[in-house]
Amino acid sequence: MPSRILSFGRSHPHNRDTKTRPTHAENLTTIDTGEQRPHSAAMDFLHFGSKDKRQSTGGQSSPKGKGSPRIAPAKAARIEIVMESPPCVFYGGTNSSGALFSGQLRIIVTDPEVRLTSIHMDLKGNTVTKKPVTKDCPACINKISTIKSWNFITEPTTYPHGTHQLPFSYLLPGHLPATTHSSLANIDYALEVKAVTTLADTITHHYPLRVQRALQPTGEKQSVRVFPPTNLTINVIHTQIIHPIGSFLVQFRMNGVVTKEKDAQTRWRIRKLDWRIDEHTRNVSPACPKHAHKVGGEGK
Fold first, then answer.
1. 98 phi-psi bin (left φ>0, alpha ψ -120 to 50, beta other)
2. What CA–CA distance (Å, rounded) separates 125 from 177?
3. Buried b vs exposed e over 34-56: b needs ≥16 C-beta within 10 Å?
4. Which of 67, 78, 184, 231 lies 20 to 30 A from 53 at CA?
5. Verdict on whether the full-model pTM lies above 0.85
6. What whole-number distance in Å separates Cα of residue 221 and Cα of residue 240?
7. 223-239 residue pLDDT tens
8. Are 126 and 147 in contact (CB under 8 A)?
9. Which of these ranges, 20-29, 102-111, 188-197, 223-232, has the smallest mean pLDDT?
10. Checking DSSP bridges between strand 250-255 and strand 232-239, what pairing results, if any?
């Protein structure tokens, strides 16, 4: 019975007519000596055990540099905002009286109790200009302004386990622009809440506030288009206010299709009629104090 040995094993010095053949193990040599030798359990263990070890660890190795994910510690409390008023809507143009909104600031304590040193909330307006005065300046691109601030507590206060409500309200000025997302700029409003505990832990909350504007209906608008050198004219009648999600009526009237002369009559044949609605947007790009000397800066 031929025996298998490793390549680093020693062959018998008297066996000269040896024959080698490859095996399925890498870097191993099988030598058929022609004589029977006692089976070595240790050699089989080295031969097959190393392969099993390579196969078992091949699919279980974790990527280098990746460990178990970190779990953030639980906060002693969390903050929620519940609005009680209708959506913020300005009626009319910039001379609107504004929009009143009110709500409840809820502090939900999950621990037996929590002691807070301050609870501060800001109403902020964020304006992002997509075509700024200086394209590489973050201050020209993004401008954040604080419209209103609230300080709910003036001294450290202990809140037991449960839900605690703090009311707030504010009359939003009517001259502010509505929430806008266009190709030139984005305007957003949000309530930012920050509470600090006696252990210097910070609890924050972000609540987006959508502001809309409703324009009162006005009269119809009439436009006339002339197509020289012919006598064709088109009268278009439509409303002056168009809602993005609503339907509106457009009326076309074409004059001059038929022209009568003394001995003849001219009639125009209409093969195709195209019309479209174009939107024109204007936006003033404010500049930061560093680039105020450029167009769009202070006083420009």
1. left
2. 10
3. eeeeeeeeeeeeebeeeeeeeee
4. 67
5. no
6. 6
7. 898 888 888 899 999 88
8. no
9. 20-29
10. antiparallel
